[in-house]
Amino acid sequence: NDVCKVLSTTEGLFAEYDNLVELAPDKLQFVPENRRHQDQVILSSPFSTGNSNRLAFLVHELLWEVFGAHVSFKPTVAQQRKCSNCSETAVDGELVVVYDVNREDTTGKLEVFNGYFVHFFAPENLEPIPKNILFVIDVSGSMWGIKMKQTVEAMKTILDDLRTEDQFSVVDFNHNVRTWRNDLVSATKTQTADAKRYIEKIQPSGGTNINEALLRAIFILNEANNLGLLDPSSVSLIILVSDGDPTVGELKLSKIQKNVKQNIQDNISLFSLGIGFDVDYDFLKRLSNENRGIAQRIYGNQDTSSQLKKFYNQVSTPLLRNVQFNYPQASVTDVTQNSFHNYFGGSEILVAGRFDPSKITEVESIVTATSTNTELVLETLSQMDDLEDFLSKDKHADPDFTKKLWAYLTINQLLAERSLAPTAAIKRKITKTILQMSLEHHIVTPLTAMVIENDAGDERMLADAPPQDHSCCSGALYYGSKVASGSIPSWANPSPTPVMAMLAVGAKPLESTPPPHVIRVENDPHFIIYLPKSQKNICFNIDSKPGKILSLVSDPELGILVNGQLIGAKKPENGKLSTYFGKLGFYFQHENMKIEISTETITLSHGSSASRLSWSDTAHVANQRVLVSVKKGRSVTLTLDKEMSFSVLLHRVWKKHPVNVDFLGIYVPPTNKFSPSTHGLLGQFMHEPKIHIFNERPGKDPAKPEASMEVKGHKLTVTRGLQKDYRTDIVFGTHVPCWFVHNSGKGFIDGNYRDYIVPQLYSFLKWP
Q1: Cα 763 off chain centre by
Q2: How far apart are CA 118 and CA 122, in angstroms?
Q3: What is the percent of the chain with per-residue pLDDT over 90, rounded to a whole number?
Q4: What residues does the VWFA domain cover (predicted)?
């Protein structure tokens, strides 16, 4: 074992991962060789031993390739000696390669191949959900010494990491149960400092009363919930830290498990950390898996503190609650666990399943979840063609990786179900299924073993089955459940906008059958105002400078505004620099909600919280009276109370185009829902002015006749022409005839266009 080569691997994963290989004398290790995408490899103390001769950062070679990286670890014989004067050598420790992958800015990815799919789900840029957390710490005599010292050090760091909107308390127990506070308190600096002083004074002694300690923690959370003291959108967690079995109070493990299950409310997750090997780890796993959490083993040594902190970091940032994966197509079967109580930032949820490729070529997924005061629906469609192309080009690619990963997930979830089986008959049935799948898919489990035979066939070696308990922080963070695909919330499928006129500015098509007339703004930015009473389209351009912010709709009475910020082309053309809307801001003041839409992202801010969506997603977000619907790569629709809507369309151009840039267009349906005080370049036309067009005559261009128009006390010369409506043809657009008002709409709009420039993206227009 003087040389170990580790190949960093990824199958399109989205969170940070580590590839851990345990090294020990005469121990045979197999390293997988599935690779996908170029990886960013970070070496994190790659090797260490329990000896004073600590091996660290002895990376001999880091070789990058197009689709991966080889890491070679070659300690010398001298570096492997047990001590400087020892003749014996021993490599005994762990080699860890920590890596991340280059990824698209999406919430998830659906890989489909050979009748199997794998759904990787790791959304980012969401506002953390407040948490209510109870730390339940074993302070019995067996925790004396290094275990308690390391636990205290970890808790001091963990308490410092709590957010001010979090609530917490500490329960410590031996044969008695004590609480730092009898109820939850806010995680202010004063409270966390006091909690740290309390923990530092703990002196381990006595027995272990796990039953009473857990029931006390559950009571504190239940009572706070019943009294309405918890934020309805918050997440409640209990983290149990113990190193032994119960010795005081209720001793029967099945009874403790039953007591916890009967008392804990279904909005609480229980995580269990077992320190050392004296604790019944199987019991902790059953206890946590049954109550929406997981268990992990912590080694009771000098690294106990870092292991505890590493685990806490995994659950410190809840981003979503009640996450459910729906695959509505009838041909999708055998889906792994698809319902999860929480999703934590920095982690990833994997769901896999089977489908009939003779009936469908694409797999659709709809994920529903709850964020901070927000209901979320995310839609994903498989990308089978891309995967087939990749597999055909990469010699290292495994065409069966979706099948193998599905089998691996299924078997591991069956093992967890087996540990919770209520009867012997059910346990035998699950065991039979696990054995069948293990043999069929060549996966070694705690119920099977692997025989290794040399080429000649005259030597065999039996590889031990892997233990059911893993070291700290390896394996899946989530233990979920299987549920039938639920119905999608009605608000996630908003009814189409009624056929009516709309105001529009510089955008592309939204609905497949859009309203025939809109007020809109398109490129450079061309304003097209449809006047329903006159049944006329009036157009004008605004010639302003990049960076300026224009007021489009400003209704201070209703607290609604829409502003747009201009961007410029890459260079002037024919002596003129074209401008476009590169960013739009929507403010719904009564809902305290701001929505910023750029050509890159969609940012939703509610009070102090914010979350971000990508144009690469199809998603629906409901927050109070506001519904935001994103159609991948095309459009965003904002609806207020199902009565007022705004549509934004994304124009993508060739990135290497010498002049053009990506830009946005906006369509606003005319409505009488705005107040009489509404103004802005578009808002002023929500209350239609009277116009009279007469004396139509030939213009300088025979194809563009001229006419006179009387409006707002002005007599203007207007030109008949065509503008583009991109709602039905997102690439080429559809010609819309209109009368064009020159000089930046002078005479048609109130005042001068410079009067509509506002200082900030969310500034209301101050009209004289």
Answers
A1: 31
A2: 13
A3: 47
A4: 132-315
Evaluate whether 166 touches 185 at the Cβ level (below 8 Å).
no
Task: Reduce the secondary structure of 294-343 to three states and give it as a string.
Answer: CEEEECCCCCHHHHHHHHHHHHCCEEEEEEEEECCCCCEECCCCCEEEEE
Beta strand segments in 572-713, E: 579-588, 593-598, 601-606, 609-614, 618-623, 626-631, 635-640, 644-651, 663-668, 691-697, 706-711
Closest CA to 465 of 450, 483, 480: 450
Give the span between the Cα atoms of 667 and 187, in whole angstroms: 45
Q: Which residues of 392-417 are buried (b: 16+ CB within 10 A; e: fewer)?
A: eeeeebbeebbbbbbbbbbbbbbbbb
DSSP string, 462-516: EEPPPPSS--TT-S-S---B--PPPPPPGGGSPPPPPS---EEES----SSS--S
d(CA 604, CA 627) in angstroms, rounded, equals 11
Q: Which two tokens stand for residue 639?
A: 């609806």
Residue 519 structure tokens: 């007020």
For 115-154, b where at least 16 C-beta lie within 10 A, e where not — what string? ebbbbbbbbbebbbbbbbbbbbbbbbebbeeebbebbbbb
Rounded CA-CA distance 522/76 in Å is 67
Integer CA distances (angstroms), 118 to 115, 334, 341, in order: 11, 12, 20
Calpha distance 621→375 (Å, rounded): 6
Residue among 666, 510, 655 at smallest CA distance from 570: 655
Host H or E run for residue 21 = strand 17-23
User: Can you tell me which residue has the tokens 């260079």?
Assistant: 571
C-alpha 712/C-alpha 156 separation (Å) is 70
What's the CA gap between 591 and 607, in Å, rounded? 9
> Are the CB atoms for 565 and 761 separated by under 8 Å?
yes
Phi-psi region of 529 (alpha: psi -120 to 50; beta: other; left: phi over 0): beta
What DSSP state is assigned to residue 386? H
Supply the pLDDT for residue 522: 56
Which amino acid is it at 540?
F
pLDDT higher than threshold 90 for residue 347: no
For 542-570, give the secondary structure using H, E and C.
Answer: CCCCCCCEEEEEEECCCCEEEEEEEEECC
Stated pTM of the model: 0.77
Nearest to 464 by CA among 476, 482, 475, 448: 448
d(CA 599, CA 105): 13
- What contacts 472, CB < 8 A, 6 or more positions away? 296, 297, 298, 299, 307, 310, 311
Is 666 in a helix, a strand, or coil? strand
Paired tokens of 143:
């925790």
Q: How many CB atoms lie within 10 A of CB 543?
A: 13
Q: At 577, is the secondary structure helix, strand, or coil?
A: coil
| Residue-level length of the chain | 768
CA distance 273 to 311: 9
**Range from 149-158, 181-190, 294-303, 738-747 carrying the lowest mean pLDDT:** 294-303
User: Which has the closest alpha carbon to 667: 690, 644, 689, 684?
Assistant: 644
Q: What are phi and psi of 113, to 5 degrees?
A: -165, 140
Helix (H, G, I), strand (E, B) or coil at 156: helix
d(CA 749, CA 767): 13
Q: How confident is residue 400, by pLDDT bands cut at 50, 70 and 90? A: confident
Cα separation, 635 vs 649, whole angstroms: 4
Mean pLDDT of the chain: 81
Per residue in 424-460, pLDDT tens?
999 999 999 999 999 899 888 888 877 778 788 777 7
